[in-house]
Write a structure and sequence with these properties.
- This protein has 15 helices and ten strands.
- It is of the alpha/beta class.
- It folds into two domains: 198 residues, D-Maltodextrin-Binding Protein, domain 2 (3-Layer(aba) Sandwich); 149 residues, D-Maltodextrin-Binding Protein, domain 2.
- Strands 1, 2, 3, 4, 5, 6, 7, 8, 9 and 10 form a ten-stranded mixed β-sheet that branches.
- α3 links the parallel β2 and β3.
- α3 runs antiparallel to α12.
- The longest helix is centred in the N-terminal third of the chain and has 15 residues.
- The chain is globular, with a radius of gyration of 21 Å.
């Protein structure tokens, strides 16, 4: 148990600069009743807490971790922070790391962690059955747990859905002075362009990005929310955002004047990214981490992902929450999301050459 006391002491020192949550307050979920018939012998045998480093906000992960502990009796402790500093910390700690599991957003970050040797391969029939191949690492080092679609949004009163089709078509002259985009410095756009390089090649992808830049109605925005607000205010007519940002607006105002269009349904499918997790290379409790990741791929937590952040379940057998379900089904791009990390450096340089800032 010394490891867990040291975890809290050192966390107070090391993560103060990169986390909104004080490590002294790292959450500990009380184990459920060990006599409960819901707790299997295999779960009862895992007596150490699972320690998670996570870039997800506390209100999105605590309810699921609490439910996991209630169901399995396995305690979860977690530390939140920004993706880059958490990965850097995991690398610096090496064999002395406290983390059993890394849980973060964007396949690019998961690819980086795996590429640095920080995640261990995990053979799991449960995860192979629950998570489609394009949403998990080909080497089994990380698995998508929720899906985030980055697609086209448009002004209901100024654009007809029949005018829209694909990411590539947003380069057409009809959209000149009508397009709004978030900054290229946001990892979501890096991942989108990285996937476009994987599909089209670098030269064709650069032509597309240059076409977007030529059609901008305003300088790039710092957030997807600002893109949506610009469309609602009439500053532009179309944009690209992660769908859950629009879902939040609709939850607040069902009459919000911006609608969603699924891009590339007649060709490659809509670009998707993930939040996901992997077992750390030097985990002290790999069995507990594996059990938690497998559990997160099952129906109840998959439904919770959708309800808490209006994302799509990674498990295709699970239905999303009502607001998300109202957008209808769509075809996902089947390129493995690991391309978002593998091609990210190329994407950054390409966007710089295209003057997409």
């Amino acid at each position: 148990m010394i490891r867990y006391y040291v975890f809290f002491i050192l966390s107070l020192i090391l993560l103060q600069a990169c986390s909104q949550d004080s490590p002294a307050d790292a959450q500990q979920n009380n184990a459920g009743d060990q006599d409960s018939p819901r707790i299997s012998p295999a779960d009862a045998a895992i007596t150490s807490p699972v320690i998670v480093y996570s870039s997800r906000q506390e209100h999105l992960i605590k309810p699921m971790f609490d439910r996991f502990t209630e169901e399995t009796g396995i305690e979860v402790q977690y530390q939140t922070g920004e993706e880059g500093p958490l990965i850097a910390r995991l690398q610096a700690e090496g064999e002395m790391t406290f983390a059993d599991m890394l849980y973060t957003v964007d396949a690019g970050y998961l690819w980086t962690a795996a590429d640095r040797g920080l995640l261990a391969p995990l053979e799991s029939e449960v995860l192979q059955n629950n998570i489609p191949a394009h949403l998990r690492d080909p080497q089994g080092r990380w698995f998508g747990l929720s899906v985030r679609a980055r697609t086209i949004v448009y002004a209901r009163d100024r654009v007809e859905p029949s005018e829209l089709s694909s990411y590539e078509a947003l380069t057409e002259p009809r959209w000149q002075g009508r397009l709004c985009l978030r900054t290229s410095k946001e990892v979501y756009n890096m991942s989108l362009v990285a996937t476009m390089i994987e599909r089209h090649g670098e030269a064709a992808a650069q032509d597309i990005v240059e076409g977007w830049v030529a059609n901008l109605a305003a300088p790039v925005f710092s957030s997807d929310n600002l893109v949506l607000e610009a469309i609602a205010a009439g500053q532009c007519d179309v944009g690209l955002v992660n769908s859950y940002y629009l879902g939040r607006k609709i939850a607040e105002d069902p009459e919000y004047p911006v609608a969603l269009f699924w891009a590339n349904q007649d060709s490659s499918g809509t670009h998707v990214n993930i939040s996901g997790a992997g077992v750390t290379r030097h985990a002290q409790n790999p069995q507990g981490a594996r059990r938690l990741i497998e559990w997160l791929s099952t129906q109840e937590p998959q439904e919770m992902f959708s309800e808490l952040n209006l994302e799509y379940p990674a498990n295709p057998e699970v239905m999303p929450t009502a607001i998300v379900r109202d957008w209808g089904s769509f075809n996902q791009d089947q390129i493995n999301v690991e391309a978002a990390g593998r091609r990210q450096a190329e994407a950054v340089m390409l966007m710089d050459r295209a003057d997409y800032r």
